[in-house]
Design brief:
CATH architecture: Beta Barrel
Number of helices: 2
Shape: globular
Strand content: 35-45%
Number of domains: 1
Strand order of the largest sheet: 2-3-4-8-7-5
């Protein structure tokens, strides 16, 4: 006999609470052709494991981003520095979803990459 699984009916289904945090964001796509190009967007909300941001371009799922967060964002999520990969004053994240809002406006979900994950080719964790 199968046990019934409980359905969650609450508003928040995430492991970490997301805090509304709308601030400018600088980022780079970690690809050979774009790594030198700094792009701009803004954060919408943030948690210990990731963030939702607004970007001006389409980015493929699983693309690695270098994210330059302001001191306030780092303070909101002190666990970021302990668990995430920090390189050159930025945090590495991976695009997990993206939703087109208009011609050049994309809502984007980014999960922070942790030190426990498999190595990413071309990136050295220190």
């Amino acid at each position: 006999m199968k046990a019934k699984s409980k359905k969650f009916t609450g508003a928040e289904r995430r492991r970490f609470i997301r805090l509304s945090y709308r601030k400018p964001l600088m980022y780079k796509l970690c690809k050979r052709t774009t790594i030198c190009k700094i792009l701009e967007g803004y954060t919408r909300d943030i948690s210990n494991s990731g963030l939702r941001c607004n970007l001006n371009e389409k980015v493929a799922k699983d693309t690695v981003l270098w994210l330059k967060l302001d001191a306030g964002a780092i303070e909101l999520c002190k666990e970021i520095e302990k668990n995430s990969v920090v390189i050159q004053q930025g945090i590495l994240g991976k695009v997990v979803w993206q939703k087109k809002l208009s011609a050049s406006n994309y809502d984007t979900g980014v999960r922070f990459i942790t030190r426990e994950e498999k190595p990413i080719p071309g990136i050295v964790f220190k």
